[in-house]
Amino acid sequence: MHNVHQQNQNTLQSVDRSGQHSSTTVSSVAKSLLPTKRRLRLDPTNKLYFPYEPGKQVRCAIAIKNTCKSHVAFKFQTTAPKSCYMRPPGGILAPGESIVATVFKFVEPPENNEKPLDQNSKVKFKIMSLKVQGEIDYVPELFDEQREQVATEQILRVIFVDLERPSPVLDKLKRMLAEADAVVEVRRKPPEEKGTGVAGEGLVIDEWKERREKYLAQQQVQGVDSV
What we know:
The protein contains four helices and nine strands. The protein is 30% helix and 28% strand. The protein has helices spanning 2-33, 142-145, 168-188, 210-220; strands at residues 40-43, 47-51, 57-66, 71-78, 84-87, 90-93, 98-106, 124-132, 151-161. The strands form two sheets. It has a five-stranded mixed β-sheet with strand order 2-9-8-4-6. Strands 1-3-7-5 form a four-stranded antiparallel β-sheet, covered by helices on one side. The N and C termini lie far apart (68 Å). It is α+β, with helices and mostly antiparallel strands.
């Protein structure tokens, strides 16, 4: 009887361990299937609204906010680096910090008998994020060095807005561009203290000289062709 009891106990322990292992495995699989939690909040969330002015370079604005408890680096990419560029093309945001970035795009004139605003822009933009340790200098190479930790926040489509027709979207675009212009004016003033990455008052320090922007524009097309 003692041997039978001992065998039953061993069997129960084995089943219990097997059940725990199975539960752990299922939990791991379930976690891997969960969508990646967003690190940034974007406004607009998945579209970039540009005024429709054929043959001209136009611009739009997008608000980016860090919703994490740690510093987050962000980076823009585009499928059309020759006709589009972003300012700033990347940066590092402290927890809760936000900025308004400006996106520039050349609008191609309509072809054949195509009506204005009917053309579908194939240009796309991508915003990527990466958690970083504290206040460090932003360099685009961060995303290459820690590629496995990089997350795609959003793919943004281009939407044209008719300037002749007042709309809430157009009004919001004008407000955001005015805010972005105000930020640029502040950044042009000589800084009182030298910073390294993120300025107080939610402003990213202007380290993007013309030659730097040209270099970054060449990098932005990488990784977007697969979109």
